[in-house]
Amino acid sequence: MDTHDVVKDIMWFHPDSIKLLNAFPTMLICDITFKMNKYRFLLLETVGVTSIEMIFFVVFSYLQSKRMNNFEWDLNKVRGLFMKDDVLPHVIVIDKDLPLMNALKVVFAFATNLLCEFYISKNVRAKCKILVTKAKD
Q1: Cβ within 8 Å of residue 12, ≥6 positions away
Q2: Which of the four CATH numbers 3.30.70, 1.20.120, 3.30.420, 3.10.180 does domain 3-136 have?
Q3: In 3-state terms, the chain is what percent helix, strand and coil (to 5)?
Q4: Which of 46, 48, 124, 131 is 20 to 30 Å from 94 at the Cα level?
Q5: What pLDDT, in 10s, does the model give residues 67-124?
């Protein structure tokens, strides 16, 4: 079997989403859902934020694996959706996924990468629980 004929990663978007992306390029939010579909692929959702803090979907991507090169492929495709090369996101919010963080440093090198508040809160609660349990002993 020729491996060149196998679909490994796939991305889709709506043309109106690309118009919104170019009108509001300042911030992107990326979130990954792990293997919750029939084919056990990762679903990477990328959304943008308007000036009145409303979100819009930019792209959906099924990725075969959680490796940096899969994320780089996806992010390079997202970067290609911008009409101007000098109008790119300033901030990208992600969860604590190291391959995605590393791919962002390559593709969107000048963007500030922030961790999602949900994951920060989750980690703080977990650490505090350990410290409070130790303090009771």
Answers
A1: 59, 60, 61
A2: 3.30.420
A3: 40, 25, 35
A4: 131
A5: 999 999 999 999 999 999 889 999 999 887 889 999 999 999 999 888 776 666 776 7
pTM above 0.85, yes or no: no
Query: Where exactly are the structural domains of the chain?
Result: 3-136
The rounded distance, in Å, linking the Cα atoms of 29 and 65 is 20
CB 108 within 8 A of CB 89: yes
Strand order of the β-sheet with 112-115 is 10-12, 55-63, 42-49, 27-33, 91-94, 112-115
List C-alpha distances in Å: 29 to 12, 40, 51, 55, 128: 16, 22, 14, 9, 27
- Residue 90: what are its φ and ψ, rounded to 5°? -90, -30
